[in-house]
């Protein structure tokens, strides 16, 4: 009996537990949902309040801007504004700006000029002497060699030596063929022309050169540049020739006889020249000169200097021009 009652009691108890649990769970879930809904409503209220404050701020800003614009308009209207005066002031400011730009450019140019590095000084060799050859005198049959020695940057001494051997052959043909030779016959005191064969001899020429631009800055000094020089010259020449003369060989018999003539000539000259020495390749130099001489020629067996001679003749006495070209080596 007890066993039968126990079993139904267990079944009834389980039924009650099952029936009572879903109700409790459903009550808890409803209360939680209501709480969540309340929170959401509170958040929504706060958002609405924020939106309301933003709208009020947006409505207030245009009013403030209108107030500020009104104040600016009142200030502008209260100002005394003259367009022409303002244009003049703007033009004046523009001119001042242009002047300042020109000043800045000038200063920049000056700074560039100042900042430009100085060119390195050109190396100028210090020459002390030169040896020169006059090729023009070769046409006279004369070998002319000179030596110039520097005394100081402005002055130098030039000494030239001449050796002559001139005939109708070779380079001296033209010069020798145009000479007019004559000798004085002591017995008749008259000149007789003869045909020359050889002119030979030697001489010396001395010049004291003054280089005119040596004291100027960046100019060439001795032995280069423009110079002026007094000079003296002496030459001793021997002229050999022959002529034909009618001579009585036997009593009453006359024949043409060849006779030989030998004359000794002394030549003295003094004058001045102006020249220019130009360097070539820093080793050679070219000397161009021109001037004048007073030339006096005297034969050994004659008392005075020669007269009535052409200036082209070697035995001319008088004023004669001097010109030439020489080339040489710098040392």
Structure, described:
The chain has three domains: 35-77; 84-117; 129-330, Porin (Beta Barrel). 35% of the residues lie in helices and 41% in strands. A hairpin with a 4-residue loop joins strand 4 (181-185) and strand 5. The protein has an eight-stranded antiparallel β-barrel with strand order 1-2-3-5-6-7-8-9. The protein has 331 residues and is α+β, with helices and mostly antiparallel strands. The chain contains three helices and nine strands, in the order ααβββαββββββ. It is rod-shaped and about 215 Å long.
The backbone outline, from C-alpha atoms, is rod-shaped
Biggest sheet statistics: 8 strands, antiparallel, barrel
Q: Order of strands across the biggest sheet?
A: 1-2-3-5-6-7-8-9
- Write down how many β-strands occur, each being a DSSP E stretch of 2 or more residues: 9
- How far the N terminus sits from the C terminus, by CA atoms, comes to 162 Å
The figure for the number of domains is 3
String of helices and strands: HHEEEHEEEEEE
Summarize the amount of helix as a percent range: 25-40%
| Level-2 CATH architecture of the largest domain | Beta Barrel
Average predicted confidence as pLDDT: 81
Number of continuous helical runs: 3
Q: What is the CATH third-level topology name of the largest domain?
A: Porin
Question: Could you name the CATH class of the largest domain?
Answer: Mainly Beta
Indicate the low-confidence ranges by residue numbers: none
| Overall radius of gyration | 64 Å
Supply the helix-strand structural class. alpha+beta
- Proportion of residues in extended strands: 35-45%
């Amino acid at each position: 009996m007890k066993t039968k009652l126990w079993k139904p009691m267990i079944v009834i108890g389980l039924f009650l537990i099952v029936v009572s649990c879903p109700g409790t769970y459903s009550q808890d879930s409803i209360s939680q949902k209501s709480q969540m809904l309340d929170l959401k409503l509170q958040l929504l209220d706060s958002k609405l309040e924020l939106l309301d404050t933003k709208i009020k701020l947006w409505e207030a800003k245009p009013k403030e801007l209108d107030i500020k614009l009104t104040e600016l308009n009142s200030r502008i209207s209260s100002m005394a504004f003259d367009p022409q005066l303002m244009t003049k002031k703007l033009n004046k400011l523009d001119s001042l700006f242009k002047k300042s730009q020109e000043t800045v450019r000038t200063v920049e140019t000056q700074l560039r000029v100042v900042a430009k590095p100085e060119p390195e000084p050109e190396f100028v060799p210090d020459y002390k002497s030169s040896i020169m050859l006059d090729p023009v005198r070769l046409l006279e049959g004369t070998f002319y060699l000179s030596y110039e020695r520097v005394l100081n940057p402005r002055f130098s001494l030039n000494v030239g030596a001449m050796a002559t051997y001139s005939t109708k052959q070779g380079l001296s043909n033209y010069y020798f063929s145009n000479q007019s030779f004559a000798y004085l016959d002591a017995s008749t005191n008259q000149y007789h022309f003869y045909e020359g064969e050889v002119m030979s001899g030697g001489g010396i020429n001395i010049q004291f050169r003054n280089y005119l631009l040596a004291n100027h800055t960046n100019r060439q000094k001795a032995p280069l540049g423009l110079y002026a020089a007094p000079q003296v010259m002496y030459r001793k020449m021997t002229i050999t020739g022959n002529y034909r003369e009618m001579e009585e060989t036997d009593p009453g018999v006359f024949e043409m006889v060849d006779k030989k003539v030998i004359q000794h000539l002394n030549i003295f000259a003094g004058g001045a020249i102006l020249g220019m020495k130009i360097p070539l390749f820093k080793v050679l130099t070219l000397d161009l000169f021109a001037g004048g001489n007073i030339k006096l020629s005297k034969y050994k067996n004659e008392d005075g200097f020669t007269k009535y001679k052409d200036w082209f003749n070697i035995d001319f006495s008088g004023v004669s021009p001097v010109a030439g070209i020489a080339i040489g080596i710098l040392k």
